[in-house]
## 1
Amino acid sequence: MILIDTNIFLELLMDQPNAEDCERLLSAVSEGKVEALVTRYSLHAIESLLKDPDVLASFLRNIENSAGLFVYETDTSEELVISILMKEIHRDFDDSLQYYVSKKVGAKAIVSFDRHFDGLDIRRVDPEAALQLFESKKKA
């Protein structure tokens, strides 16, 4: 299980330079070849940025129909813990939430381009490295 950070989806949706790598990873997740998690917080952040209702509907359909993607929704008590965690790990709320959820579910890595995750006790990988995690697991 990996946690996919907000910027991986946005990279693809906004056709940024690493969009192809993100598309390969998200396709593997959609097909159920890779098990991944996204936070409801990330989905809301993306929803707030997508102004075109057709693009938003397509995005949400893809999330809903993705065989290997699970959505984790934090509750208020968890968000209180996360607010305390912010001080301990010296990260903002968003990064602390992603880290907390990753640790809670035992994720092998956080897939992100955000270097704020570097230096924590869970590794940050890019989409290509995330795919390699699952390919090496299949060979073993």
## 2
Amino acid sequence: MQAYVLWWILAAVLVGVELTSGTFYLLVYGVAAAAAGVAAWLGASIVVQMLTAGVIATLGTLVLRRWKRSTAHPERTVEDMDIGHPVQIDSWQDGHGQVKYRGALWDAEAESASVDSSRPLIIRAVKGNTLVLGN
């Protein structure tokens, strides 16, 4: 079997597996393998084929990592949208309780012992499913 056919089979397998993972890294490696297949088809030596695959895979990985960092939105940003909003106390005892917020009951805790539950409570932070409240 010709080398270019093996490269293209490898490329097809990598792209096929990528369809199940959704990370884009295997897509980059599949493109690198396809490019190495083109190099083999044009008659390049095995060293040139490997260098072609390696360079394209490395550059593609670096570009993909940079793109993912620039488009990454940490999960904290969703939680930060809640910070500063008032809540309605449903039950409260010793700095812990349940509050109504956005139409649902949430577990809550006081950010410090000085929090006065008789005054309006405001979300100061979010820890998992628990709202941290203060005055």
